[in-house]
Amino acid sequence: MSNLNTYQKWDETANIVLKGKKIVKVEYMSAKETKSYGWYNRPVTFILDDNTRIIAMADDEGNDGGVLACLNKGVDAVLPVLGLED
Predict the structure, then answer these.
(1) pLDDT above 60 for 66
(2) Which pLDDT value is given to residue 2?
(3) Hey, how many other C-beta atoms are within 10 angstroms of the C-beta on 47?
């Protein structure tokens, strides 16, 4: 599959999952749930209006929780991961 086809596939998937949806809840994953994944970091999660849960992960293999970069017109922020004890 060419890169263009790959990008188109994932663009389509992202649009199906995210486009037009509203974030209705934002929370950090609990320490208990984080441990159940075998992770050391507690990431931010989003719940969408169709009950889809978005979890920030360190990589596409789900090896640990990850950060979110938030960029908007010169206001840059990072929502960090929290440790199990935070």
Answers:
(1) yes
(2) 66
(3) 15
pLDDT tens digits, one per residue of 17-64: 999 999 999 999 999 999 999 999 999 999 999 999 999 999 999 999
Between the alpha carbon of residue 71 and those of residues 41, 68, 77, 81, the distances in Å are: 22, 10, 7, 17
Residue corresponding to tokens 């970069």: 69
What's the CA gap between 34 and 32, in Å, rounded? 5
Residue in 28, 22, 23 with CA at minimum distance from that of residue 67? 28
The string over 5-23, giving b where at least 16 C-beta atoms fall within 10 Å of a residue's C-beta and e elsewhere, is eeeeeeeeeeeeeeeeeee
Q: Which amino acid is at 11?
A: D
**Cα four-point dihedral sign 82, 59, 51, 73:** positive
- Three-state DSSP state, 75: strand
